[in-house]
């Protein structure tokens, strides 16, 4: 079982003189235990995506370490990382002319040689991945013709076909209706693999995450269980909004109601 450790990451976009202070990372440390679903929350521009990019070997940190089971991912090849870490981003790939099956089958690439064709096992894993996101029978559909929500589920299926040890999700529910937001997070949770997800909707984060990290101005300001983290003072300080917090009537996790002046 695989764990992820980020320690004291620092990263600045486009050189130090640039004005993007909000995306800087400073002293960011975070841990995802094997099988744990960890949420990263914070206001827009607080550094969530920057942090995730350092973790999945896209943006190289200036200092600090990204360790996957004690192996520094920045000292490994991109293929080594792709065999272990799957990423689901907000943007969809430009899969012009590709079928749903083709897109999901891309998840098998890190495990194959350059000229290897699809094996029976590959095809089985692709079919299985599509079933697990509720898209069986979509194999031959053109990816470009799908709705945003269907595309998002295909990208999750591609990540599952990769058979990763760690899953990283950047705002995975942005394009989805409430039903599919809940279904997608339920599916991810059932996988029981270490998952780090930035989540925009704090009520979804409260419902699905084992632990939360709050990032603000590039620094991790607090971490803990949803109950420990999601307090009215924190939401006021970090998000600048008054909130009422009580318990979800059925499941007992924190429920946030934003207080708006009519």
From TrEMBL:
CDD domains: ABC_Iron-Siderophores_B12_Hemin. Pfam families: ABC_tran. It comes from the Bacteria. Transmembrane segments: none annotated. Keywords: ATP-binding, Nucleotide-binding, Transport. InterPro entries: AAA+_ATPase (IPR003593), ABC_transporter-like_ATP-bd (IPR003439), ABC_transporter-like_CS (IPR017871), cNMP-bd_dom (IPR000595), P-loop_NTPase (IPR027417). Gene3D superfamilies: P-loop containing nucleotide triphosphate hydrolases (3.40.50.300). Residues 210-262 form the Cyclic nucleotide-binding domain. Residues 4-242 form the ABC transporter domain. One of its GO terms (molecular function) is ATP hydrolysis activity. PANTHER family: ABC TRANSPORTER ATP-BINDING PROTEIN, HEMIN IMPORT ATP-BINDING PROTEIN HMUV. Belongs to the ABC transporter superfamily. This is ABC transporter ATP-binding protein.
